[in-house]
Amino acid sequence: MGNQRSSLYPPANAPTKLQSTDRKQNIIFVMKDHQKKDAETNPIGLHKRRRRFIIKKSPILIAMNSSSLNLPMLKSEDRNNNWKSLYQIQRERKRIMRDTCSKYKSNNRRIITPYHVSRIFVEDKYRILYCEVPKAGCSNWKRVLMVLNGLASSTKDIQHNTVHYGNYLKRLDGFDRKGIYHRLNTYTKMLFIREPFEKLVSAFRDKFEHPNNYYHPVFGKAIISRYRVNASKEALRTGSGVKFKEFIQYLLDVHRPVGMDIHWDHVNRLCSPCLIDYDFVGKFESMEEDANFFLHLIGAPQNLTFPRFKDRHSNEERTTTKITQSYFAQLSPAQRQHSYDFYYMDYLMFNYSKPFEDLY
């Protein structure tokens, strides 16, 4: 874990003293000079703009301590209760993540671009950086950050559209080089992840099995046109009614007709855990326990707990292991294997078991 603090993080107005570390690495920071648009509204155009920008700009070489701040140490009164076991779980998750990165990724020269921090939301009062992973509790985590920041008194008061389209929370790539550098070094960095197949099915159900004026015309029409034999004119016109098997064909196609989307992209790409040393790794499967442990560690108000309500399609059952298996049962063994290969790094890095026995 590197050096650790002996107590919880200080209040927001207290001076911060950085811990030293012997894991120093050079990082290249490529800074942006344009106003970005949300990746969800135009992911293809945004990727192209970033790519052109990275090619054009000369990188700025700076030195940064890796893990200058780590998960806070437990206070003495915490050490004989459940917090201690949760703390050990965090240490183990971080170890597996680091070992996977060491084995599969080269960290000799680490390059951080605006793309790498574009999914990270900033809460300055409690010094939190949260990497958004869609379909892994991100709506409720944004609600929590808004309450911590004083933007609302309760998570129940914040509507779904306010969470995602209100622009109340800052993103890390909206700061200048100094602001990004300072926050990466001194804030608590955390992400929450979910079993990859379950997350994928949850995204499919949300975006393709309900009316949607973005995913149906943009993704649905392209998917049906390419992968459905004898598609009806109505299906081609609306893009509605995409089947899970067609969706998987699109996902696995190296020449897919439309680009990748954050809702089914790899966590490894969304949050760059081999470049950004996260202090806390929570799991959707143990959300309530992990989330409230995190809030305890950062010294959040005791009356603030992680909300469990489902604000989209609330009458529909959450995507479970059983539901996920029913969707993947529609695929051939080869398609299941290729899907597992597609998310292999996420399975490995976050220590999820193989979802089917016939996978290798």
Layout of secondary structure:
Blueprint (H helix, E strand, L loop, with lengths): L23 E6 L13 H14 L3 E6 L16 H23 L5 E3 L1 H4 L2 E4 L4 E4 L6 H11 L11 H6 L4 E2 L5 H10 L1 E6 L2 H13 L6 H13 L5 H6 L5 H9 L14 H5 L8 E4 L3 H11 L23 H8 L4 H10 L1 H6 L11
Parallel strand pairs: 1-3, 5-7, 7-8
Antiparallel strand pairs: 1-2, 4-5, 4-6
Helix pairs in contact: 7-13, 8-10, 10-14
Structure description:
It is a single-pass type II membrane protein. One of its GO terms (biological process) is carbohydrate biosynthetic process. Belongs to the sulfotransferase 2 family. Its main location: Golgi. Keywords: Carbohydrate metabolism, Glycoprotein, Golgi apparatus, Membrane, Signal-anchor, Transferase, Transmembrane, Transmembrane helix. This protein is of the alpha/beta class and 360 residues long. It is 41% helix and 10% strand. It has a 5-stranded mixed beta sheet. A 3-stranded mixed beta sheet has the order 2-1-3. A hairpin with a 4-residue loop joins strand 4 and strand 5. Helix 7 packs across helix 13. It is globular, with a radius of gyration of 21 Å.
What are the main properties of this structure?
360 residues; three-stranded mixed β-sheet; alpha/beta; globular
Strand portion: 5-15%
Secondary-structure element sequence? EHEHEHEEHHEHEHHHHHEHHHH
Structural class: alpha/beta
Q: How many DSSP E strands?
A: 8
Helix content: 40-55%
Order of strands, widest sheet? 6-4-5-7-8
The residue ranges in which pLDDT falls below 50 over 5 or more consecutive positions are: 1-41, 46-69
Radius of gyration: 21 Å
Mean of residue pLDDT? 81
The first-to-last residue Cα distance is 32 Å
Largest sheet: 5 strands, mixed
Keywords: Carbohydrate metabolism, Glycoprotein, Golgi apparatus, Membrane, Signal-anchor, Transferase, Transmembrane, Transmembrane helix
Main location: Golgi
Protein name: Carbohydrate sulfotransferase
Organism: Chelydra serpentina (Snapping turtle)
